[in-house]
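Field notebook, page 256. I keep forgetting to write these up properly, so this time I am using the form the group agreed on. The chain and the ligand, S-adenosylmethionine, are recorded exactly as supplied. Prediction of the bound pose follows.
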Amino acid sequence: MEAFKKEVEDRIAANPKDEKLSKSAAEFMVASTVPKYSYNFEWQGRPIIQYPQDMVAMQELIWEIKPDLIIETGIAHGGSLIFSASMLAQLDMCDAIEDGSTIDPSKSKRKVLGVDIDIRAHNKEAILKHPMASRIEMIQGSSIDQNIISQVHDFAKDYSKILVCLDSNHTHDHVLAELEAYAPLTSVDSYCVVFDTIVEDLPGDMFPNRPWGPGDNPKTAVWEYLKTHAEFEIDEAIHNKLLITVAPDGFLKRVK
Ligand SMILES: C[S@@+](CC[C@H](N)C(=O)[O-])C[C@H]1O[C@@H](n2cnc3c(N)ncnc32)[C@H](O)[C@@H]1O
């Protein structure tokens, strides 16, 4: 097993030097953005705006960290909330198997807390009707509004292993403000995942109707945040493994 792990690590470390592989992955990211590839998937019946590779990476992180709280900015149709809740449900199931107890979802402490400036009524209804709903809490408002930040911090007080995912407005200033507000809630050895850092690597004319683009996006916010926050490091092994990801430089590990 150790030998197998080492082989995988070596392969991942070699990926960035593999020009053919890196180039074709980069080309795929450009070509797949135009036809809105990330909008084609569902998690347990809810649309999730993610690339499947990133979902697998999140599954690996959640299994490794075993968080009791996942904080997400950007709910949209609720797919990522349902995804996180379903992973937490599996952690509860594993705990129950280990200690021979039964699972009562209404008593599960593990929760996903989602924040969105506009939780559409039909999305909210579908999320609340979903079997994973008991593990989900939602707050409506801008993620950088001081009142919303206080509500999230207040909610987080009762939790000890926290994973943070930022996927709302993708401008530099907004993501930097989200990082200042929520990254400190990330537990040591857990992650703050910043989605759509890929915008920095895509052609400038791809976002004509958006306020973000190369030079003004989640990746530039991550770079600026890290200048003054040595407690976080970019986990390069994750994006080097995925190659196809919307979060290059976006998997931030809290190291102290
Ligand atoms: C890319 S979608 C989120 C996708 C979702 N995480 C998923 O994986 O399916 C972005 C969401 O961010 C929300 N949003 C935009 N500006 C926001 C803000 N200032 N505060 C909180 N949410 C915001 C939008 O309403 C939208 O639902």
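OBSERVATIONS:
- The pocket of S-adenosylmethionine is lined by residues 48-50, 73-77, 79-80, 115-118, 142-143, 167-169 (CB under 6 Å).
- The chain has a mean pLDDT of 96.
FOLLOW-UP: compare against the apo run.
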